[in-house]
From TrEMBL:
This is Tyrosine-type recombinase/integrase. Residues 2-188 form the Tyr recombinase domain. Pfam families: Phage_integrase. The keyword GTP-binding does not apply. InterPro entries: DNA_brk_join_enz, Integrase-like_cat_sf, Integrase_catalytic, Tyrosine_recombinase_XerCD. Keywords: DNA recombination. It comes from Candidatus Methanocrinis natronophilus. Coiled coil: none annotated.
Length: 190
């Protein structure tokens, strides 16, 4: 089995160039850097951040598994996060939307799809039930890229499981079975 929706690090870097705002760059950097699901990240509040410890606390009612977890935030994202939250109140949304609630996961999907299209890295892999084209680059693609990159860097499988919030190690182990092209690139660096 291969992971059908996996992009290269080079495609990710091209995607980052085409983001219209600092907010969008930060959201996409956090999706990739933490491996969080889009709904988990959009459901976060300023008070869920611990920038001293470099953690994002994902509350149980906001996660797919309904279990609390703390995800590590990459060190390089701490300064832009500090700047982003500024003096905002702890109870405010980390990424507020226009109507007072959080930015919607749907809007984040649109931002990513548009940036991927402009970067020339969007590839169609199928169609939805209503006939819309489905692109390979999505928030969940960034979660896949996080997992594969982490394993390539030597992160133990059980640590990746905790970061991603998988209840079963077998769910996480799917990332060990990446496609042939990814394996070739990994071995080329070896």
């Amino acid at each position: 089995m291969t992971i059908p929706k996996l992009i290269s690090q080079e495609d990710f870097e091209k995607l980052m160039v085409n983001l219209p705002s600092e907010r969008d760059r930060l959201i996409i950097s956090l999706l990739y850097g933490t491996g969080a699901r889009v709904g988990e990240l959009m459901g976060a509040k300023v008070g869920d951040l611990d920038l001293t410890e470099g953690l994002l606390h994902l509350q149980a009612h906001k996660t797919k598994t309904r279990q609390y977890r703390a995800v590590l935030i990459p060190e390089r994202l701490l300064p832009p996060l500090r700047e982003w939250i500024g003096g905002r109140e702890a109870g405010g949304w980390l990424f507020p939307g226009q109507r007072g609630g959080p930015l919607s996961p749907r809007r984040v999907r649109q931002i990513i799809a548009q940036a991927a299209e402009e970067a020339g890295v969007q590839r169609i892999y199928g169609r939805s039930a209503d006939g819309r084209e489905l692109g390979i680059v999505s928030p969940h693609t960034l979660r896949h890229l996080h997992a594969v990159t982490a394993l390539d860097a030597g992160v133990p499988l059980n640590d990746l499981q905790a970061q991603l919030g998988h209840s079963s190690l077998s769910t996480t182990s799917v990332y060990l079975r990446t496609g042939l092209e990814h394996r070739r690139r990994s071995y080329a660096r070896f």
